[in-house]
């Protein structure tokens, strides 16, 4: 659709169209169907050009998300210092999955800052990689071994199995804490969880910051009680 300026060698409207359709959960087939229903030619979006668009959009979204997460983490650190005179953070963890139960292949876990209420980091759990799946009939070939080595070295593999599906959230939280110093220069000293949460028990055993650093648990009920007391005082 040559009706606007280009970004690189692509028209902006084509990129925005592909991005919006992907946000709605639709891929190339959905784009072609929409164009057909709107009586628009869809020849501008071939399979290869759509794949290139997805790679470009993915890179841009990832970069933007990382900037927002670092900004949120910095805000949480500042508010923590202002309210508690501490450099270590208090967070809660929350996970969402592709489907209910313990058989999901994909999930997203987030860390939420106590003072700011903002998401400061996320971890995507995946038991599968679509690119690897395309090679499943050639796993024993030299071509696959050469491709897979480059695939992993370039950090392109989407599979990061950390045990069964039921342990996705626990293992994701551990990984999020392990990389907190690298990502935003702060440690997590307090983890907010419900009374029967298994996450804290696994955190205590994993010791993401080493054996000399203790992570404390704060119960959700106690945290909510404190918040209601603050509201009552204000009223």
Automatic annotation (TrEMBL):
InterPro entries: Mutator_transp_dom. Residues 9-219 form the Mutator-like transposase domain. This is Mutator-like transposase domain-containing protein.
């Amino acid at each position: 659709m040559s009706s606007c300026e280009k970004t690189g060698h692509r028209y902006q409207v084509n990129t925005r169209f592909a991005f919006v359709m992907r946000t709605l959960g639709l891929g190339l087939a959905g784009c072609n169907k929409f164009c057909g229903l709107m009586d628009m030619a869809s020849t501008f979006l071939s399979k290869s050009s759509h794949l290139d668009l997805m790679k470009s959009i993915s890179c841009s979204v990832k970069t933007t998300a990382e900037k927002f997460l670092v900004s949120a983490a910095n805000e949480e650190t500042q508010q923590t210092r202002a309210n508690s005179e501490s450099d270590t953070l208090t967070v809660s963890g929350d996970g969402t999955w592709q489907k209910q139960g313990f058989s999901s292949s994909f999930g997203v876990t987030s860390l939420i800052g106590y003072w700011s209420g903002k998401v400061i980091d996320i971890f995507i759990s995946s038991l599968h990689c679509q690119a690897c799946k395309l090679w499943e009939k050639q796993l024993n070939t030299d071509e696959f071994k050469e491709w897979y080595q480059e695939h992993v070295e370039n950090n392109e593999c989407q599979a990061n199995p950390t045990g069964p599906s039921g342990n996705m959230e626990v293992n994701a939280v551990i990984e999020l804490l392990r990389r907190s110093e690298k990502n935003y220069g702060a440690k997590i000293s307090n983890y907010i969880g419900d009374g029967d949460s298994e996450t804290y028990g696994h955190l205590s055993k994993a010791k993401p910051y080493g054996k000399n650093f203790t992570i404390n648990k704060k119960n959700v009920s106690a945290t909510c009680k404190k918040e209601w007391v603050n509201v009552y005082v204000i009223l």
